[in-house]
Amino acid sequence: MSKPAGARCNLACEYCYYLEKSKMYAQQPSQTMSDELLERFIRDYIAAQPSQYVVFSWHGGETLLRSEAFYRRVIELQRKYGADRTIENSVQTNGTLLTDAWCEFFRENGWLVGISIDGPKQYHDRYRLHRDGSGTFDDVMRGVELLVKHNVEWNALAVVNRANGDDPIGFYEFFRSIGCRYLQFTPVVERIEHHADGRWLASAADRSSALADFSVTPEQWGRFLCRLFDRWVVEDVGRIFVQMFDATLANWVGEAPGMCTLSKICGHAGALEFNGDLYACDHFVFPEYRLGNILQTPIGELMRSRTQTEFGDAKLRSLPGQCRRCRYRFACNGECPRNRFVSTREGEPGLNYLCKGYYKFFDHVAPYMDFMRNELAHRRPPSNVMEWARRRTAAKR
């Protein structure tokens, strides 16, 4: 994930884990990626890829604080160094700065746009705020309408938090109502740890930090996943693609899940800051997880370094005994290491905070996943599960 505008953003979302990263670069207030760094990144990133298919992910902060001219330069450099590679770009934005011109640029160049939106207005506006404290929902929806108007491919990235975690059906029906076909959602779990430079969020290395009050609870997370799945599985399989459910099915059939949090190992998705500093992961942008700077060491060398390899392998190696014995270890793999800050029933550290929620979800969906796995094994569409699910639901009544 490349951060061309660093942590700079036009909004002030209360739960944002990235906004405070600007404090790590207080001596570089502009936090803007130079053309020299951009060219070095694109050249070396393409060269480091093992296949013909290359994906660039532009994240923030807010990506659209950089101009259209910057991203046109991105395309020029990709063509210069891409040779016969197939190159795709995705950009994550809060949507409030989208214009007709931006949407035309994305459509003409085939860019995928991710929109950050947390569901209906009453939930979205609880935490996703303008700097004056006002809600951003109306501005985001205006951006979504522009994407639809210009036929831009887009998906939604939502955060499940303490406010919206009790209304999974309202959450899901909202995304159906706005025509969203690709939905990603992630649980927000943050802890408070005050640092000397003014940062206030804990890293995975901090063990005794207090939980932030906007964090979803394990019980909420489990109920949320189960109820949303029950709504999706009777009508929308193959029509609306929910990343969590797709990744779960992938693990069920023994394929790569496409979600680092549910993978056996991690470490394949570094985060590149505006000045060339490379970190182990987007959620590990803390001084202790800095790998180096790509202006001094090629990005491929840093990502293949012993430090990064050990970081990725530690996800599997550090699983506590309770996880290793769990019947759903194959589906969960301990989820993200950043959330492993509670203890097991035996008192062993390293259990994932959301463990109870994930276990409830996997136990609930196991019959449906078994059914879809069988359909795939017989070369039939997994969407056949919808009729089976409807009969199963009716039989319970």
Q: Could you state the order of secondary-structure elements as H and E?
A: HEHEHEHHEHEEEHEHEEEHHHHEEHH
Q: How would you write the strand order of the largest sheet?
A: 1-2-3-4-5-8
Shape: globular
Give the tally of β-strands: 13
Summarize the amount of helix as a percent range. Answer: 25-40%
DSSP helix count? 14
**pLDDT averaged over residues:** 96
Distance between the termini: 47 Å
* Binned strand content: 5-15%
Q: Based on helices, strands and strand pairing, what is the structural class?
A: alpha/beta
Radius of gyration: 21 Å
Spans of at least 5 consecutive residues with low confidence: none
Tell me about the biggest sheet?
A: 6 strands, parallel
